[in-house]
Design a protein that fits this description.
226 residues; alpha+beta; Jelly Rolls; DNA Excision Repair, Uvrb, Chain A; eight-stranded antiparallel beta sheet; five-stranded antiparallel beta sheet; 34% helix; binds nickel (II) ion
């Protein structure tokens, strides 16, 4: 299941990220696996770039306060976010599946359960550049508003089609979830959203709500792996 979360970044955060991106030393990327590298034709900010720590901190601060993201992704570990840029000269990233294992700065491994793209450009600033994700029931294409986040299971084939005009800036990241199975995660998210809505209508203390909230937590307890 892919979800889109609008307005993950504030206007100020977005403006600051875009300004730092303009100062960044963009390079052709080599972060992909062997197959993905063949089809990757974009630019990214290299490790060690001076602007990277502040950019990463801004993104992490925005992700950490987002309750919808927490409910849908149940993140256990995040890889430090990276940034990419597509232009007509570096236009696209062909069909691929993200590598399953990524290494964290502390040397431990992260299993990529979820991939995410945080859009830093508005769709009006470029042509092309659709992120298409092949889900079991068909492909979905997205050109998100600046500041919005799309999250999808890392095991799905996806591509970014060619940018033919302008510039498409984005941040991308990988998460390991407390719940490995995408269907279990989807069920928990569905239950959580229904509970939030019921609590709003009925208050906190309805006995059935107390029971169902317990059911949510006990399912999470059964399915959590750390
Ligand atoms: Ni990818």
């Amino acid at each position: 299941m892919m979800i889109v979360i609008e307005e993950v970044l504030t206007r100020d955060e977005l403006a600051r990220l875009r300004s730092l991106a303009q100062q960044a030393p963009w390079q052709t990327g080599v972060s992909a696996g062997t197959q993905a590298r063949e089809v990757k034709h974009n630019l990214q900010i290299p490790e060690g770039a001076e602007v990277l720590p502040e950019m990463r901190a801004l993104v992490l601060q925005a992700l950490n306060r987002n309750r919808l993201l927490f409910s849908a992704a149940l993140p256990l570990k995040l890889r430090p976010p990276n940034f990419n840029r597509y232009t007509p000269e570096h236009p696209n990233y062909g069909w691929h599946i993200d590598n399953t294992v990524r290494w964290l700065p502390d040397g431990t491994a992260l299993r990529t359960d979820l991939s995410a793209t945080l859009f830093l450009s508005d769709p009006g600033e470029y042509e092309g550049g659709e992120l298409t994700i092949r889900e079991p029931l068909g492909a979905r294409a997205i050109r998100g508003a600046a500041g919005s986040l799309v999250v999808y299971p890392s095991g799905l084939l996806h591509e970014v089609s060619a940018v033919t005009r302008g510039e498409r800036l984005a941040c991308y990241l990988f998460m390991q979830s407390l719940v490995k199975d995408a269907e279990q995660r989807r069920l928990l998210h569905e239950l959580d959203l229904a509970l939030i809505s019921l609590r709003r209508r009925l208050g906190e203390n309805e006995p059935e709500l107390v029971t169902l909230t317990g059911t949510y937590h006990n399912l999470l307890r059964r399915w959590t792996e750390t």
